[in-house]
Amino acid sequence: MIELRDVRFVYPGARRPALDGVSLRVEPGRTIGLLGPNGSGKSTLVRLMNALLLPTDGTVSVDGIDTGDDASVWTIRSRVGFVQQNPDNQIVGTVAEEDVAFGPENLGVPPAELRVRVDDALAAVGLTGLERREPHLLSEGQKQRLAIAGALALKPSYLVLDEPTAMLDGAGRADVLAALAALRARGVGIVHITHHLEDVLGADRVIVLADGRIAYDGTPVELVGDPSRAGSLGIDVPPIVVLADALRREGIAVPRDAVTAEGVVESLWPS
Amino acid sequence: MALVARDLGYTYSAGAEYRIEALRGVRLTLERGDLLVIAGVTGSGKSTLLRLLAGLLEPGTGDVEVDGDAPRSRVARGRVAIVFQNPESQFFAETLMADVAFGPRNLGIDAAEDVAAAALASVGLDPVAYGGRSPFTLSGGEARRGAIAGALAMRAPYLLLDEPTAGLDDSGRRDVLAAIGRERATSGVAVVTHDPDEFLGDATGLLALDAGGVVFEGDVRDLIDRPEGYLAAGLRLPDVVQAQVLARERGAVIDRVELQPLAAARVLAQARRAER
Amino acid sequence: MRVPVTFGQYVPAESPVHSLDAKTKMGLVAAFTTAVFLVDGFPGLAVMALGVALGLRISRVPARIALRGIKALTVLLSFTLIAHALRWNPATVALVRLGPLAVDAGGLREGVFFVLRVVLLVVGTSLLTLTTTPVQLTDGLERVMRPLAALGFPAGEVAMMLTIALRFIPTTAQEAEKILVAQTARGARFDEGGPVKRARAFVPVMVPLFVNLFRRAEDLAVAMESRCYRGGEGRTRLNASAMTGRDWLVLLSVAAALIAVGVVL
Lengths: 271, 276, 265
Hints:
The complex is a heterotrimer.
Chain A lengths: L1 E8 L9 E8 L4 E5 L6 H8 L7 E6 L2 E2 L6 H7 E4 L12 H11 L4 H14 L15 H13 L5 E5 L7 H16 L3 E5 L11 E6 L2 E6 L1 H5 L2 H6 L6 H11 L11 H8 L3
Parallel strand pairs in A: 3-8, 3-9, 6-7, 7-8
Antiparallel strand pairs in A: 1-2, 1-4, 4-5, 9-10
Helix pairs in contact in A: 3-4, 3-5, 4-5, 5-6
Chain B lengths: L2 E10 L7 E11 L4 E5 L6 H8 L7 E6 L13 E4 L12 H11 L5 H11 L4 H4 L9 H13 L5 E5 L7 H14 L4 E6 L3 H4 L4 E6 L2 E6 L9 H5 L6 H11 L11 H15 L1
Parallel strand pairs in B: 3-7, 3-8, 5-6, 6-7
Antiparallel strand pairs in B: 1-2, 1-4, 8-9
Helix pairs in contact in B: 2-3, 2-5, 3-5, 5-6, 9-10
Chain C lengths: L21 H17 L3 H18 L3 H4 L1 H4 L2 H12 E3 L5 E5 L2 E4 H27 L2 H16 L5 H31 L9 H7 L1 H24 L18 H20 L1
Antiparallel strand pairs in C: 1-3, 2-3
Helix pairs in contact in C: 1-6, 1-11, 2-6, 5-6, 7-8, 8-10
């Protein structure tokens, strides 16, 4: 479990804290969607989870290890994988498999096991067969899955992603989301930052940050089921949810968890 | 008076061993006041089309005309403005005002700063408050709008935008969409995107590309009758349209597809009541 | 649009030379260079030229590509030839005379010898870069430099820097092209005016290119730290290239033959 207790974080020289009074738990096999406008503290929050940043006040621990413990920093970083928005900026290797190997190479994993880890990680994101491909010849979606594979090769218990789909087209986005769902099923705990509520409708929990504080903590269905609440949080509800809400006002019973076109139509014209 | 493309095609490394046919057989007409949505996934040829329309590439086949002239001709210079993906990554000047004024100054427009100030105002950035700021200190949504102002300051009758809302948060997106809406009052606007949902409600036309070829062209509402090419191109129907498609498949009578969620809800509710 | 960006000189092919370890080829280049400098007569050069021709043949690199490097040196080589061949009032019998300037047999022979030596060196050493990928070269370099680590030379870090530079060359080239097109669309002209005006025209390209490079560097530092990078020490390698028995055999026998030719001829 990643546990944040009453965390406050102030960037050096900043007047206002980037995060204040944040407590939360990330559990294995669960997905948390993290939303909020630019500057609300999302990126700061995830950087606290793998000891890239240390809290000004409060504590952050990973499986019981405090992130402030200098001796454990590499243990923490191998348990909490981190993927950023722009895949181009985080790929180190000159060919795909060498990039995936970068993390475990740093830990001194022997070559025979490196091979196994690289093959497993590439398979987990559906990139088997592209081992020798140069990164700049991959599509954006493939690059982002390569970045995820690079984190997976460290065998993390948790994966933290900062807007991993922001630069992808529909197909690339769907592939990344599918890869994340498969990882959750394998027991990896996932924190997924996004601007699109649609991306995290399948998450176990959604947390919305506003001005460095947790403004909402609940299920995605509860959030989309309450458009006025979502609106006050600055989050655009998906159009299909607006449609469902309008149907309810017309007196047609549409269940709250119908958040897809199929779901809405099913409640009107059952197949 | 329009931006017109006829039988437009382009092949990269034409004649070489690994040539890539990026585009073929595209025709389109963009008039002032139009909002044309050009949809396609990565590699579908939409960025090539944009470059051809802006005169940044010489067509391989067919031709482009801007109000009757070739876009690469001297007289047509400055008639088509283009905003590339992540345009804020092309800022270079010390102040936002100087950056926005770069285009008009290159075109030799008098009082480039006044034009730039007007462009900033039209994207919702107060020229007094923002003009003197370094473009590198702006938030995501502000920076995107500032960069779009750089294109608007060209005062071109046709504006082309490549993924103008990608990577923005919701409030940034709303601001950019509003700025595009205002621009339509005086210009013809074409938006290239892989995720056309947010533009379709206001679109006057839709062109979908797949592997360089046109797979759909026409009114957005026609998608409900012939969505095959669009879907095969890896594009997703907007959920609101998809709901009406599914409802029709299950026997609901829907004559006219609506694109806005509230109007679509009325259509679905009516169809439901009609059955009782 | 994703256009393959090629750089360096690597010519992809399946050949016994391509499959040699980079370190072996580096060793051979060192032996070859030494031998070419040891040679002091045309027979020696002829044998070396035969060797290079054989190397090219085995590596399946077209001679036309291998000779490309010479083109850039044409002016320099012509100058070398003339400088050697021309004499001022020579005592010997001149072949051609132009006032006090003369070309004699000894000078001409000397000039031709020097030119041929440079040509051989360029073509011979280019066999290394033509048959080895930049990645393999970097890896090989790291291994060759490794003994220097004992003296405090950061071999691992230097190799990592080279790897990252190689990785980002295509990305940066693509980005520069994007910015160039975007500024062109805003009416920028890069082909007008004198040199100063032209240089100034590139400011709107270079500034964003560098700003973006620094942003990239920041992201990359975070990514590397997140993936436990802590310097070269203790790192293992997925594709650790190792010299095989064949490598040692080729290296020792060919190097011995080269040096022997150099000493004898």
